[in-house]
């Protein structure tokens, strides 16, 4: 082959690559960043210009519902396949002044729930038309002046009358959270039908599913095995015996809470330790003999508890993640062989970490990796230049699968929605 033939081959290959890149963009949509994708995955940018999009949901007709914290609104994106990607056919605000984070649909898809600092609200919902009914608060009494205003919510197909509502701590170290009656740093379950008749008070109503969880921002139900899972943002600025150990401790946490309709659920009501006990990510840095990844220990300036209480009488997570990476959502694929987790990214460590979507592999309803593993995460979508974070990168928040196995990802910092194919 001569030099001209070689050059022609290079030009032809370049043309194919350009065509492939352009095929990943919807008309009029230009993403701000070019994510680095894990093996077997590709992406497209679905939407830009949203106002602080947080959690998202796919309705029964395949439309994407987006909770915009920036405008406290819900938007309905009607989607349409265009070649090998999906694009937005129409974008309409369907609810205003309703949310700052959470969104969920009932098991039958006919009721839409949103959450904000103070309450959870329900609306009748028609997926075909996007019509919503009158706002009906079903859980109230959650407001306080503090550092964690999100109220993650999730619904169940295994227990269709149940909604889960998480309420975080009032501050980094919330000393009152040692009292279960404070109704902070916990996940509670509520009857939807009863809430539609008369709103539940968060503090006095419902049932405690789990507590001692500093700030739960994402929850989900395993679609095949029925288990409830949460991802937790743990303590900042950690010190032990006057020594600063915060850069690599404590671990962020994935926790298991059993099956809601299991009358003998042994995980129901367990205490996970916060604020007195936190999980280790880098045990050597902590410096306590025998400590493993995920082991609970007592740091400085927390409510007094005997060290044995942390080791023996508090529940540990099922998997653990790099300190301060801030997991904000978790969703399973259709056959429950993997859970995908959105890490919003750190502000309390140097260098920065997180700012990615990863996969955790599952088998028979549980992660395949041991609780002490530091290698359970498989890269799916990452920032190409994490050194530019947090100011100049995408920051994943919400996740949602559609029936075709496409994974939608919101980025609040950039006002974008991405789609991951191959999940």
UniProtKB/TrEMBL annotation:
Superkingdom as given in the UniProt entry: Eukaryota
Swiss-Prot/TrEMBL keywords: Signal
Q: Where is the Pyrroloquinoline quinone-dependent pyranose dehydrogenase beta-propeller domain?
A: 35-421
Q: Reply yes or no: does the keyword Signal apply.
A: yes
Matches recorded under InterPro entries: 6-blade_b-propeller_TolB-like (IPR011042), Beta-prop_PDH (IPR054539), Quinoprot_gluc/sorb_DH_b-prop (IPR011041)
Give the originating organism: Thermothelomyces thermophilus (strain ATCC 42464 / BCRC 31852 / DSM 1799) (Sporotrichum thermophile)
Its recorded name reads Pyrroloquinoline quinone-dependent pyranose dehydrogenase beta-propeller domain-containing protein
Tell me which positions the record assigns to the signal sequence: 1-23
